[in-house]
Amino acid sequence: MDSVSDYYSATQLRADRWSALREAVTSLCREQNAKKAASIKVRVADLFSSLALIEPYWAFPGMSAFDHMRRQFEHGNFDDLSFTVNRVKRALTSGAYRRRSIPLDRDSTDDEEHNDEALLSPEARAMARPYFEVLIVDNVNDQQERWLKSNVARMRRPEDPFHYEAVVVPSLEDALIAVLFNHNIQAIVVRPGLALKSKNENEILGKYITNASETGEIEAMLPEDYGPELCRLIARVRPELDAYLVTERSVEDIAGLDLGICRRVFYNQEDFMELHLNILRGVAARNKTPFFTALVEYSKQPTGVFHAMPISRGKSITRSHWIQDMGAFYGPNIFLAETSATSGGLDSLLEPQGPIKEAQELASRAFGSKQTFFATNGTSTCNKIVVQAVVRPGDIVLVDRDCHKSHHYGMVLAGAEVVYLDSYPLNEYSMYGAVPLKEIKHQLLALKAAGKLHRVRMLLLTNCTFDGLVYNVERVMEECLAIKPDLVFLWDEAWFAFARFSPTYRQRTGMRTANNLRVRLRTEAHKRAYEAQQLELADATDETLLNTRLIAPPDARIRVYATQSTHKTLTSLRQGSMIHINDQDFKGEVEQSFHEAYMTHTSTSPNYQIIASLDVGRRQVELEGFEFVQRQIEAAMSMRKAISSHPQLQKYFKVLTAGDMIPEQHRQSGVTSYFDNDQGWTDMWDCWEQDDFVLDATRVTLAVGGTGWDGDTFKTKILMDKYGIQINKTSRNTVLFMTNIGTTRSSVAYLIEVLVEIANELDDLLDDASKMERISFDRRVKNLTETYPPLPDFSRFHDAFRPDHVTPEGDIRTAYYLSYEETNCDYLELDGSLQEALDAGQEVVSAGFIIPYPPGFPILVPGQVVSQEILAFMLALDVSEIHGYRPDLGLRVFTPEALAALPKAKSLQATAK
Domain named Orn/Lys/Arg decarboxylases family 1 pyridoxal-P attachment site: which ranges (predicted)? Predict the structure, then answer.
C-alpha cells in the first residue's frame, strides 16, 4: 500500500484507490493460486480501509453501497463485487452519476453500454440537469440519517432545474474536510446537533482541518456556537458556497453573530420544502448568466438587419459561393449571435444598463470586488485604463521594472514620473524574480525624505509573475500604507485569475487582501497595535523602518485595483479580461476619470461573444472553480513528482523549486520544495501564509541546459516541431510548463513520455558520439549551466528627464515623444560605435523600448542611460526576437544635441555648476 504522503491531495488519493481496488478485485476473481489470492485479499482489505476514511464525504456511491461492497468481499462474493466496483469506478471516471442513477447490482436492467457517457452528444450533455451535492451537518444515528436523506429526496420535483443528493456528516471538523475535499458540494445545511471533533483520523485529511480553522479558539466555544462558527469558517475557505443554519437559538442571539456565507436561518423547524427551494434558488443565483442568456435569446429571434456588420445573422456567409468553409467550420450559432445592436434585450458595454451590467455585478460578487468591469481587448488595455484613470501628469508611480510592456506604455500615456523598482536577479537561469519589500520601502522613504511623498500616487506590481512568483500581498500593502496611507495599488494579476478559487491561493490576491484590511484596520486590536508601534518608532531611522514590520494606520485608505486575463487562466475567449476594483475613494475621486479612461480604450463595437464568454466563465468558477483549480494544482504537482523522481530525467533536466527561485531570506517558512523524493509532499499552506514570496505550483519551470539546447531551441525545435507540445515562455536555459483548468492527467503523462524519449535519445546520441562531438556537447552544456551573463539592474534616467539628483523618478513621456523627431535620434552598433562611446565615457541614452524575448520586458526604456552592464547583457543575448532593436542599424539613441536642448537638462546643469 502506497503512503498517503505520495499524494498531493485526497481527491487524487480517492481516484487512485478506486482504480487500485478495481484492478485488485478483478485479479482476485481470476487468481487460482491460493497463496497469491490470499495476498490479493490483504491488498483489497487495505484498500477498503483506506477508502472508508474518504467515502463518507461523497454522495456517490454512498456509505450504504460502500458497506454493501465490503460485505460482498467478506462473504467471498468476488464476481458480484467486481461487477459493482467496476460500475462505481466507471461512473466516477465518466461523471455518469451526475446525470443518472447508477444501479450497482447484477439484476439491474440498466444497459450500461447503451448509456455510455462517452457516446452522449454535446447537445445531450447540455440538456442534462446539472448535479450537485448538499452537505448536511448533524450528529445523527443511521436511522436518523436515512430519515434526513429521505425527507430531502421527497422534495425533489421533475421541474427542478437541478438535481442534488445529500451527504450527512456529524461534526464541524468533518464539514470542513468535506467542503475542502468534495468539489460537488454547493450548499451546506448546518443543524443544531452537530459535534465538534471528527472521528476520522488520517494525515492527508487532517491537514484540511489545520489549514482551515483556529482549533484552539473553536475548542473553547459552547456547542450552540458551533453552527455559526462553521458558517464563518466555510466563508474563509469556500466563500462561493451557500449555507443554511437550522437553530434553536433566539432571533436576538443570532442577529449579532457573524454568520459567514449563511443565506438564511431556519428557526427550530423541519420545513424541508422551504429548505429545498432555498437551496435551488441559491445555486440558480450563481448559475445565472444574464448576458449569455440574452445573447442566446437574441440569436433565436427573426431579425431584419439594416445596420452595420454584413456577417450578422451569417447572411454574408450563407449567400457566398467562396467562403462557405468558414460557415461550416464555425457553425451557424456564432453568426446568429453576432450583432452590433445594443437593444432587443442586449446591452452596451460602454454604458451598461441591462444584462451586461448585471453580468459585471455577478463577476464582482464572484471575485470579491466592489466593482468589476469587462474588457474585450485584453489586460493590456485594462492596465492602461486603470493607470489613466488614477494617475495624473506629474504623479510619481513606483513600477516593477520587469512588468508587462502595457504598464510602461501606460506610464507614457499618463505622463507619470516613474520610479523603476528592481527585482532580485536569478542570473543562473537568466530571469528576474520579484521586487523585495525593502526595495519598495526604501524608495518610499527616500521620496518622503525629499518632500515628495504627497506626489506618490501608485505602486504597480505583477502578481503573480510570468515565472510564478507570488507576493505576500497583505504585508506589502500594510507596510506601504504605513508610510503612505493613501497609496493606490495596482496588482497585475493577468496570470492569477484562478487564484480566487483556491483557499491557499486566495489569501494572496488583491481583492481578498483589500477586504481583509478594510475589516482589520477598523478593529480595536489593530488600533492598539498601531499606537504601540508608533511610540516605539518615534525617533526611528530609515534603517530601523526598513527592518521593522510596519503597521498601517487605522485611518489608511484601502485603494486596490486588480487586472486579470480571464482568457489566460479561466474559461473565456481570447482577449476576455476583467478589471476588479476595491477602492474606498473610487466613488468620490476616480469614478468619472475611470469612465473617461474606459471610453478612451474600449471599442464602440466590442465583441459580444467575448462578453458572453466572460459571463459563462464567471458562472463556471462560481460552481466548479474549486474543483478545476484543485485538479490544475494536482496536475502540476504530479508533473513535479514524476520529473524529480525519474532517474533518467534527472540526468538532463531539473525542476526548479522555491529554493532555486526565491532567496532564503524571503522564505521565512524554510520550505525549499513542494516535493521531496525522501519525504513526499510539503504542505504549501505554511509558506503561503508566511513567506515574502511563494512559487505558484501550477507553473513548472524546467532547467534544460543539461540537454545542450538553449530554452528557445528546446521549445521550438524539440517540443513544438517534433512533439506538438506548446509552451510560450523560455529563458536562456529553462522552459516553462503552465497547467491550467483544462489540463488533464493524460496531458501530464504525455509530457513525461516525451521527456523520457528525449532523454533516451540523448543517451543514444552520446553513446555513439565521437570524442570531438562529446567535447562540443559538454561545452554547450557548460555554457548554458555555468557561464551566464549577469542580469542588469535599471541604470537611471538621463538628467534631461529627471527633476533633480535627489530621487530617481524620470519623465518617460517626454523621452518617448522626443524620439518622434527623426533628427533627435541616431543609431549605434552594439559591438562597434556603442561600445566605443561608452568606453570614451559618453552618456548614451535609449530613444525607445528594447524588449528581448525572452525575458519579455524592457531592458531599456525611453530616456534610460545605457550602462556597460546592459550592453554586456545585450551582447550575450542569443535570442532571435528583440522588439525595438534594428540589427541592420543598431540601437536607437538620442543625439547629444537633442538632450542638451531640453529645459530640464539646462536647469540641472546650472544647478550642478
Answer: 289-527, 559-745
